[in-house]
Amino acid sequence: MLTSRTFVKRTRAGAVVKVVREHYLREDIACGAAACRLCPPATGTANAPGLEARPSGASSSLCPGPHFLLPDTNLLLHQIDVLEDPVIKNVIVLQTVLQEVRNRSAPVYKRIRDMIQNPEKHFYSFTNEHHRETYIEQKRGETSNDRNDRAIRVAVNWYNEHLKKIEDEEKIQVIFLTNDRTNKEKALEEGITAYTCEEYIKSLTANPELVDRLACVSDEGKEIESGKIIFPEHIPLSKLQQGIKSGIYLQGTYRASRENYLEATVWVHGDAEENREIIVQGLKHLNRAVHEDIVAVELLAKNEWVAPSSVVLQDDGQNEDDIENEEEKENILKTAVNKDMLRPTGKVVGIIKRNWRPYCGMLSKSQIKEARRHLFTPADRRIPRIRIETRQAETLEGQRIIVAIDGWPRNSRYPNGHFVKNLGSAGDKETETEVLLLEHDVPHQAFSQAVLSFLPKMPWSITEEDMKHREDLRHLNVCSVDPPGCTDIDDALHCREIENGNIEVGVHIADVSHFIRPGNALDEESVKRGTTVYLCEKRIDMVPELLSSNLCSLRSNVDRLAFSCIWEMNHKAEILKTRFTKSIINSKASLTYAEAQMRIDSATMNDDITTSLRGLNKLAKILKKKRIENGALTLSSPEVRFHMDSETHDPIDLQTKELKETNSMVEEFMLLANISVAQKIYDEFPEFALLRKHPAPPPSNYDILVKAAKSKNLEIKTDSAKALAESLDKAESPTFPYLNTLLRILTTRCMMQAVYFCSGMDNDFHHYGLASPIYTHFTSPIRRYADIIVHRLLAVAIGADSTYPELTDKHKLADMCKNLNYRHKMAQYAQRASVAFHTQLFFKTKGVVNEDAYILFVRKNAIVVLIPKYGLEGTVFFEEKDKPTPKLDYNNEVPSLTVEDTTLHVFDKVKVNITLDDSNIQHQKMRMVLVEPKILGKDVSANPSTEASSENEPEKKKKKLQK
To answer: Which residues are in the RNB domain (predicted)?
Structure first.
């Protein structure tokens, strides 16, 4: 049956237009009940009959008979955590509801789709909008929301009538779940059995713990507000948008401070206000914004502007309504203002978009006996504490748990939320690893069956068809050089002299794009993950292990598919010809950096692989020299390697990574391949090449470096990358050889983040750190999705593959780059968190240690030190709670800090005492105390809030050079 649907929509230009579309109605859409013999069999994985013949799950005291659940839109949006519990099964998700959820919350929509595809959940998607008996027209004067509510009730009625026809002693009933009072009343009037989510969940008497997972919202889906008003009212979204358009308000991303819970910054959006930062201070001005929310701010008058606070304030009070205490702390902020550093200051007037997520942390159990309301303290200090209700407080004490925010009423000091999941005991290695993955939004669930279904069937081998379209390079002496234990081998190399006396060099990269085809479930999962994440004792693969460690990995002595970049060079490493080809290779050796170095240095080894390595190493040195002459930076960053106990997998030794010539050799040819491919894909596709750039830092970023060098009578020039590189090369001290390394470490902190971008959406292609006019990532497709896209572009460019619409859509490519940049950043943070956690485990068993250190930064009340032996950073504070503060004199120009009569300068060598402070089980930290020099003849105690991590550094000083 053919009908039509009429609706209105707003165009990009802002005009409202009427749209009429044909709408097909069918009679053969299955109800999804396995017991039904009236409906035709459903087809497709997602719509396979999911409703059990005899509904299982928890028994309800309200409806003891067999039943299916049918929730409305708001219930799905707000109570998704309850629905995900294994107890909840046999749920009908209407097309009407699914479409509304998709429009309102992409994350919730994804979670619902996952449940529909999970055969154990028995969720069924019913396309009521295309069923002849459940489709309804919108009445004159009826809102879209009311029409959809009516459509849901019509579908419930149809289901109940339809299921009555099933020949069974016990009839199956459909229970309508809604938290909308009006919708529930109308349903009851129509003879539908309807309950709120809370009523139904509380009826599951065998599962009382489910009550904890209920979101704290009223029956109208709005926050309950009563009592004393603490915060100003948020301005409605429509008025905010008008105010932003007229310039009254500014829109930006809210970023809370780790060190001061009464301070945040808002990074304003838009080209005209690029990099504009607005400070927000004080509880009422923060106005219930949460880290990463998109907010609207109103600038304060200039006489109300403040400076970034130098005061550390942690929210450690137990009384959640102690507003007087907050006001006292705000007065401390006001008295600590440096008049010379005033910055634009504002207040949050409304929320454009909430970016809440599930938060990991621990329960701060109420001191009131039998209390059900408790405060949850997130692991991330930037997130406010959350008030939840739970009956499991005794069980959850000392556990890492997940909590979701439901809302933040004006009368509440903290947001309201609900318990989602118990992760395990705090301090347990598996639990803490799970926490750091969740907190850094690293997708790490097992690959779904839908994803795995697109993998090659084993046993797999290269076919005759594959051979027809590839160059056979199996005769070449190809080898790979990687870290010890590497199984996901992306790249391999060869070098040989050819007949005309020139040198042929090849970089051969795993042809992952052969196995991952555009648009399928495997491809979608890979782009969602974006990158492989390497933790200290495990890795989270971007692609399934069958590909990462087997079929794509360029292991030795097996035939593998590759994408090869081959140059003809002269002996001066000048490129004469470049070609790209899909190939088949057979690596002759899988070497570690140390093994390859040993071959190069050996006086007795002269086999083909060793000769190839020596040729590569010789050319690499020439290539590196040229890069540095062009202004490429050679920076330093302390990296550590843990040696794990073979049985417990606990760290038993901690060492800084040693780099060999072979590390540089591989790096040079990977850089060269990336540059060559970047130029090729840009020449072919100037509007939609995926490239990588590294912006030049603003001059102010170098202030700390220039001042630190000047204090050692050295000049660092920052006019250009070349000037910086040359001045770093000259910055040597015969009496202090480690000084140059420290300067390079400090320079790394001045850098901006390298990012992926679409060539058609940007004009600045330059890679500052590499001094290259163009760059991309081609050489690691097993662990980076960006490389897969680059492979696809290159394959189209050389006629080895066909294109597809998304590949040549610059807007979609730009959106993909945003996701890849985000995933790359989160992976870095997760890796650092893993190093920090394993460092704590190491020192937990090692006990108290005294080690030499160098001062990297000085603060008003602290010094930041680097311990070269462990590649470890930490902060030594000269203030301790409840103890007299020593006389401190901070000099920003030198820079130095005088403690009593002892002056400490940047780069000074000191000795520190290192211990693990586990007094706060949630935030264990490395505690450092100054041992030498002694202040007033005794050691100066360090504040227990010391952290041996990058968290004490301002964000702008934590940037690292990215390639």
So the answer is: 470-800
